[in-house]
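Lab notebook, bench 4. The sequencing result for the construct came back, and we need a structural model before the next group meeting so we can plan mutations. Quick request posted to the team channel:

Model the 3D structure of this chain.
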Amino acid sequence: MRFSPVLRHVFPFTDRTVYRGVIFDLCVEYNEENMRAGGFAMGFYIRVERNVKVYIEDINPAGGKTVFFVHGWPGNHNFFEYQFDVLPSKGYRCVGMDYRGFGHSDRPWTGYDYDRLSDDIRCVVDSMRLHNFTLLGHSTGGAICIRYMARHRGCGVSKLVLCAAAAPSLIERPYFPYGLKREDVLNIIRGVHQDRPQTLRDFGNMLFFNPVTPALSDWLFQLGLQAAGWSTAAIANTWLGEEQLFQDLKEIRVPTLILHGVDDRVCLFPLATAQHESIKGSKLVPIESCGHFLFYDQRQKFNEELIGFLEQ
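Done. Here's the predicted structure in C-alpha cell form:
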C-alpha cells in the first residue's frame, strides 16, 4: 500500500497506524523535515508508554517559533482555538497536546499524577525534537508545565507562560490559605462518579466573569465530556495530594509570564501572586474583569500580552 506524504508524518506506535480514525497496516516514521516543509495543520499520535498514545495537533509546522500548549481540566487542546486562529498568521508554530485520558488521547486507567503527565510532555518534546520553544499551560496544564520545568529541567523550553495555573496548590493547606476548600474538590470527585455531565455543567458556571453565549458554554461542556470519567476524577484527586509544586516553582530559570484573571473563582488570584513571588524575574499580569477562562473572557487582552511576550 502506498501512503501520501502527509501520512508519512504519523509517528509509529503499534503494528497498525491510526490517522483521523482510519487504520493503516503499516508503521510510518515521524519525519520532522517533511513535517516542517509544509504550512498545513495536522493531527497525529505519539507513543508515551508501551500502550499509551497521546494526540498532537501541529498547526503551521513551518513556523519560525514554537508554542507548546497544555490544556486545563477537563478539556483538551481545542480550549486554545482562539489562539490557534491568531498565532500561526504571525509566523508561530502551535503544538497542542491532549494529555492522557482527555480529548483524542488514549485513556489508560493510571498515570494521572503530575510526574507521569510531565513525562508525557518530555516524550513529545523528544519525539518531535522540539527546542527553544515556549511552554504554555492553563490551570491544571500550568501545574503540569511547572512540574516539567523542575523534573525535566525545562528541557527545550526558552520561555514559560502560566495561565490561571493551578499552583502552587489548588486547595487550601495549613500553610497556604488561598485555594479552594478541600471539601469542594471532594464534591467534584464524587460528582464525577455519580453524575459527570451535571458536575461539568456546574463547573462550567464558574469559568467566566463575563457572559458567554449558550452555544460557547455547550461547546466547552462537550469538550469536557470527551474525557474518560476515570481520568476526570483521577486528575481532580491529584489536586488533593500534590504539594511539591511549592518547591518546583523555585527551580524555574527561564523568562516567565503569569496571566491570571482577577475574578478567577477556580484558581484564586493569590495563586498567581505566589507563583510570581517564587519564580525569580517573572512578570505577573493581572487581568481585570476576567475569570478562569481568561483566553475567552478577555481574549484580546490575553492574546496581546501573549504575543508581546513571545516577541521579546
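The beta strands are 17-19, 22-24, 41-49, 52-59, 65-70, 92-98, 133-138, 157-163, 256-261, 283-287.
Will bring this to the meeting.
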